[in-house]
């Protein structure tokens, strides 16, 4: 794979999760453009730089030793990528402090290097949180590939930070530079909430939660078919989002033990708050993680999963396939994975390669609910 070459460093970078012969790079032209632009400003070693939404640590790892760098984002996989890429390039793991999107950073920052996220609500929340954390004359420099840069990104920068200057396109990437100006104090509109009728729940959703405004149709199809009579089974909600599957299952299975996992820190934060509201102090483990990668083998009886079909801007079934493999490792013999998926994704045949029995529990015109037994 090619190196990320910038005025700061030449880095050998990998994506997370790792794939054999991965055709995709861990950086793109927008990362290169951001680093070139910052270097042209010649910031000193005392310059405090906040890096936001750095997919696999390309920006933060490049800046180590050149400025005071802090990284923040909503992806646990991005944090893992940062850790691995620092080590891969001979840099100390603690050379870049990391703040999850569920926590608050502390400024003031002189520069913010920001990769425009897929979810504009996350961008808006991050810009609002910068209030009071920018030094006088600070700039927020947002970078994206042209095909992933919505017009609204510039509008949000203008609204919350100050006047915006758009760069010329370079290798199909563009930068938007917002210079700090006086703005009124803003109150974040996040988290948002919505209500379910069955089960009767009010669900809080932080800015980067999937289907933040309403229950997604896949989960809606899945809910009536969650397994009951689980007794004291050990159950995981894999890719839990706001926790709705795990919480609904727990309400119907008062003796079962639950683990909820997601790679989004804001999803985990939402799931924690929703579990507390629905189930009070009932014991649960809710964590940010690389799926079930850290789960002990044969430690679960049931896994519930509405698998994702994209990672950031990349669409594909790699993450879903990996989740199925992780579930198989974590399940006891005789344990079961329950999933919902679009009919056209062909999950039945994929699961049949890993599990000894796969059956269709239910179907709608668009979705199938499958049970795979180990």
TrEMBL record:
<dbReference type="GO" id="GO:0005737">
    <property type="term" value="C:cytoplasm"/>
</dbReference>
<protein>
    <recommendedName>
        <fullName>Ribosomal RNA large subunit methyltransferase G</fullName>
        <ecNumber>2.1.1.174</ecNumber>
    </recommendedName>
</protein>
<feature type="domain" description="Methyltransferase small">
    <location>
        <begin position="201"/>
        <end position="371"/>
    </location>
</feature>
<keyword id="KW-0963">Cytoplasm</keyword>
<dbReference type="Pfam" id="PF26049">
    <property type="entry name" value="RLMG_N"/>
</dbReference>
<feature type="domain" description="RlmG N-terminal">
    <location>
        <begin position="2"/>
        <end position="180"/>
    </location>
</feature>
<dbReference type="InterPro" id="IPR058679">
    <property type="entry name" value="RlmG_N"/>
</dbReference>
<keyword id="KW-0808">Transferase</keyword>
<dbReference type="GO" id="GO:0052916">
    <property type="term" value="F:23S rRNA (guanine(1835)-N(2))-methyltransferase activity"/>
</dbReference>
<dbReference type="InterPro" id="IPR029063">
    <property type="entry name" value="SAM-dependent_MTases_sf"/>
</dbReference>
<keyword id="KW-0698">rRNA processing</keyword>
<keyword id="KW-0489">Methyltransferase</keyword>
<comment type="function">
    <text>Specifically methylates the guanine in position 1835 (m2G1835) of 23S rRNA.</text>
</comment>
<dbReference type="GO" id="GO:0003676">
    <property type="term" value="F:nucleic acid binding"/>
</dbReference>
<keyword id="KW-0949">S-adenosyl-L-methionine</keyword>
<dbReference type="Pfam" id="PF05175">
    <property type="entry name" value="MTS"/>
</dbReference>
<dbReference type="InterPro" id="IPR007848">
    <property type="entry name" value="Small_mtfrase_dom"/>
</dbReference>
<comment type="similarity">
    <text>Belongs to the methyltransferase superfamily. RlmG family.</text>
</comment>
<dbReference type="InterPro" id="IPR017237">
    <property type="entry name" value="RLMG"/>
</dbReference>
<dbReference type="InterPro" id="IPR046977">
    <property type="entry name" value="RsmC/RlmG"/>
</dbReference>
<dbReference type="InterPro" id="IPR002052">
    <property type="entry name" value="DNA_methylase_N6_adenine_CS"/>
</dbReference>
């Amino acid at each position: 794979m090619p190196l990320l070459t910038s005025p700061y460093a030449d880095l050998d970078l990998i994506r997370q999760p790792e794939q054999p012969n991965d055709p995709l790079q861990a950086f793109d032209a927008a990362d290169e453009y951001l680093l070139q632009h910052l270097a042209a400003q010649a910031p000193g070693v005392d310059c405090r730089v906040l890096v936001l939404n750095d997919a696999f640590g390309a920006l933060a790892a490049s800046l180590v030793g050149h400025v005071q760098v802090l990284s923040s984002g909503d992806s646990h996989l991005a944090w893992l990528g940062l850790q691995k890429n620092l080590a891969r390039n001979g840099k100390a793991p603690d050379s870049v402090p990391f703040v999850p999107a569920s926590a608050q950073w502390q400024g003031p920052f002189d520069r913010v290097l920001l990769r425009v996220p897929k979810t504009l609500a996350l961008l808006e929340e991050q810009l609002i949180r910068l209030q009071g954390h920018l030094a006088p004359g600070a700039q927020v420099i947002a970078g994206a590939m042209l095909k992933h840069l919505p017009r609204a990104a510039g509008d949000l920068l203008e609204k919350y930070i100050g006047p915006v200057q758009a760069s010329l396109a370079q290798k199909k990437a563009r930068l938007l530079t917002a210079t700090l100006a006086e703005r009124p104090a803003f109150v974040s509109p996040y988290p948002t909430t919505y209500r379910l009728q069955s089960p009767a729940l009010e669900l809080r959703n932080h800015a980067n939660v999937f289907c933040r405004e309403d229950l997604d149709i896949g989960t809606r199809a899945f809910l009536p078919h969650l397994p009951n009579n689980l007794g004291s089974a050990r159950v995981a909600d894999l890719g839990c989002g706001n926790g709705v599957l795990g919480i609904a299952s727990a309400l119907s299975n008062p003796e079962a033990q639950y683990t909820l996992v997601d790679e989004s820190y804001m999803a985990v934060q939402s799931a924690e708050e929703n579990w507390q509201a629905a189930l009070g102090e009932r014991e649960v483990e809710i964590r940010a993680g690389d799926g079930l990668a850290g789960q002990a083998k044969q430690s679960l009886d049931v896994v519930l999963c509405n698998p994702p079909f994209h990672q950031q801007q990349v669409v594909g079934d790699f993450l879903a396939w990996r989740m199925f493999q992780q579930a198989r490792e974590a399940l006891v013999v005789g344990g079961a994975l329950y999933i919902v998926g679009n009919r056209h994704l062909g999950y039945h045949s994929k699961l049949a390669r890993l599990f000894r029995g796969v059956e269709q529990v239910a179907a709608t015109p668009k979705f199938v609910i499958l049970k795979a037994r180990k």
